[in-house]
Amino acid sequence: MSGEFILPRAASKGDPLRLAVLISGGGSGLSSLLKHQSSEGRNHRTVLILSDRIDAGGLEFGRESGIRTLAIQLPSEPDLEKRRLLHEQEIHEALTSYDTELIVLSGYMRILTPWFVGKWKGRIVNIHPSLLPDFPGAHAHRDVLSAGVSTTGCTVHLVDEGVDSGPILAHREVPVMPDDDEASLQERVKRAEHLLYPSIIDLLALGEISI
Ligand code: GRF
After folding, report:
1. What angle do CA 95, 101, 102 make, to 5 degrees?
2. What number does the ligand 1 atom closest to the CA of 126 have?
């Protein structure tokens, strides 16, 4: 299934773009986005924080900031495909009930179905911890270290039906140090992510991104 990417509207400070942030883990990216949005003059704001795990540490950032925060777990449906679809239908309903205009994946560890992507295409953005198209998938830092490259980074991209394959909006490079392990590399890349992601979301919400 494929279709056109429909980008979000150009928003303004007076009528900011309504973001939903989807997380699965610690939420350091969510925290940096919320900090960014707490400054005056942003043309986007987070209206919903959603996790697929009730134990996601990042849910705490939502609770602290008074933003509606939901954990929607996979339902107990035995058929795998049906289970994914039911889960995403529930997420889709939550997103529409909050008038979401842009879905920000921030460490959301599930691959979205073509059904879900089709509903939101152009309005789902992701950050991946490598310089895509190099090192897609769930183990980017491990793969970067085994490849022995000296530069990695992060990529902001629109989500399509593939895995880490949608149109690339921006890269930020990060050096790999000779004594890096996965943890040290992840930490350095996250620092870059926390600068890059909010700045690209600013541009998306200004209508200044075209693909
Ligand atoms: C980030 O490195 C992001 O690129 C990847 O998952 C990590 C999430 O970290 N998709 P956090 O939960 O925001 O701390």
Report:
1. 90
2. 10
Q: Measure the CA–CA gap between 190 and 53, rounded to whole angstroms.
A: 21
Q: Which of 87, 128, 157, 194 is catalytic?
A: 128
Domains of the chain, earliest start first: 17-206 (3.40.50.170)
Name residue 105's beta-bridge partners. Answer: 22, 126
Return the ligand 1 atom nearest residue 154 CA.
Answer: 4
Cα atoms in the 13 Å half-sphere on the side-chain side of 121? 18
pLDDT the model gives residue 2: 64
* 21-68 pLDDT, tens digit each: 999 999 999 999 999 999 988 999 999 999 999 999 999 999 899 999
Residues with CB under 6 A from ligand 1: 23, 25-29, 58, 106-107, 127-129, 190, 193
The CB-side HSE value for 118 (13 A sphere, CA atoms) comes to 8
Distance CA 22, CA 157 (A): 15
**pTM confidence score:** 0.97
The pLDDT of residue 158 is above 80: yes
Q: Is 139 a catalytic residue?
A: no
Instruction: Compute, in angstroms, the gap from residue 2 CA to the centroid of ligand 1.
Output: 27
